[in-house]
Amino acid sequence: MRVTEDPVVKNLCDKPGDERVPDGRPIQVTLPPAPSMTVGEITGETWRRPPVTDPAWLLNFQGLRWVAPLAYRAGQDGQFTSLTALIRQAVTFHITNPDPGDNSAGWDEGTALRRLQTENCLYALTHSAALIPGMTADVAVLTGKRYAGPPRLPVHNHGLMANIHMINAGKILKKPEWVSFAADRIVAEAPKAFSAKGVTFEQSSSYQNVNVSLWRTAGDILTELPGYADQGAQIQQRARNADRVWKYLTEPDGKIVQVGDSDLLKGRPGRPKDPQVLRDDETGWVIGRTSWTDPDATFYTVRYGPDRRAHGQEDRAGGLTWSAAGTRVLVGLGRYGYDTTDPLCNYRREPSSQNVASPPDPHIKGGRTSTIDTEFGKTRHNLAVTDDVYGPLHRRRIMVDQKRPALAVTDAFGDVPEWSQNWHLDPAWKLVSGKVGDANLTFRHPSGRILTVSTSGRVSGIWIGDKSLPYGWVFPEAGKKIAAYQLSVKSPDGAPVATTFRVT
Length: 504
Prior knowledge:
- By secondary structure, this protein is α+β, with helices and mostly antiparallel strands.
- The chain is 30% helix and 22% strand.
- It has 13 helices and 21 strands.
- The protein has helices at residues 7-13, 44-48, 55-62, 67-76, 80-96, 109-126, 132-143, 157-173, 176-189, 205-223, 229-243, 245-248, 343-346, and strands at 28-29, 37-38, 277-280, 285-289, 299-303, 320-324, 327-330, 357-358, 370-376, 380-387, 394-401, 406-413, 420-424, 430-433, 440-444, 450-455, 458-464, 473-477, 480-483, 485-490, 497-503.
- Strands 9-10-11-12-21-16-15-14 form an eight-stranded antiparallel β-sheet, with no helix packed on it. A five-stranded antiparallel β-sheet has the order 3-4-5-6-7, with no helix packed on it. The protein has a four-stranded antiparallel β-sheet with strand order 8-13-20-17, with no helix packed on it.
- The relative contact order is 0.07.
């Protein structure tokens, strides 16, 4: 059997590259936007001071994720000179850029776990002993103070990925102490990954699916480990319970709602007999709909509850999304990326990027409260969020009229003289009438639907595709932006403001 047909290799190496790797000639690697690099010629200085600062790019580059598909393809094609060169490149990363003992130069936990994943693949392909010191160094990061999980941090998908890769490394290197260490952490952390209703604590619709997939994998791995079969079966059950939430996050158009750091992914239909509302106080979500089968159904989400964490955004002061008559109206922005030098990436951390009300200079601090009261009638859902998330006491009343369809939101702050509501429309809506200073705006949808926005305040801002602030964007996937209307409604002298959205 060829090495690349080994089931261990297939499991650890994922997919080979699409193109053949040059054998006996320099291997050029292009990782845009960086200039082309030659395998074997990447210096320690380049590892420590890469040409790109974007965190996602760094995870790929310093995590050696680009090496695995090349190596897998080289092994598949019998190109052992190139395979040797790629192994040597992984080894020299550690020689020229040893662990500094902190998160710099690619030695944070997220990069180390991805590097270990690559090294697992390379070792499965070649059984090269030269890889073992580097793998050991990466495991040291994942078992030390930089680990992304308890006791220093809450349970997180990075910690689970680290444990999965440690188990794989321990199995192929015959290091049972790595296997048991990681397996014990998985067992201890599993009860803290999801709420009792199966919702992730990472405050993101996309990461619901990420965590379900990872915990399902962890459960499968543990069921095959001696002494862990029962715990593995329990984790599998938790993953199945959490998997049911995916249908609640699915809008009537078949794609998921974008809440938190999320992408516009394909969802999953529910069943007519499923409850139409999910309320989870542990994680701070209400998700409601009028039907599981009607494409013209109303759908909404409201966020409240715990402090922002993991992949959450500034939405827990009653941040909401709303779809009506089968069309998305109020939407979450999603995520553009994580590069702190890019204003579009940082915007998701500001209250103005959410469908919330906030003072002009909100003081965002941990430990503030956000609670909800709900009343779910046959044709109307009434929700009331009370919070001090941005400093002053704030009350938000939300009425979802399931028949008209309409959404009415009333906000009130205590003695705050100036504050605003922020609203983000789906990019399909186009402004037909109204301007800054008005109390009424009209938008048209390509389907012919009309959206009327009426407020007791005054429209103080209308933006679409503004690159300077940056306002008026949505992000269907990382790195992709689409211009969409963003509105601001200002309170007159700090008085309560009622804004209504109606689709006809």
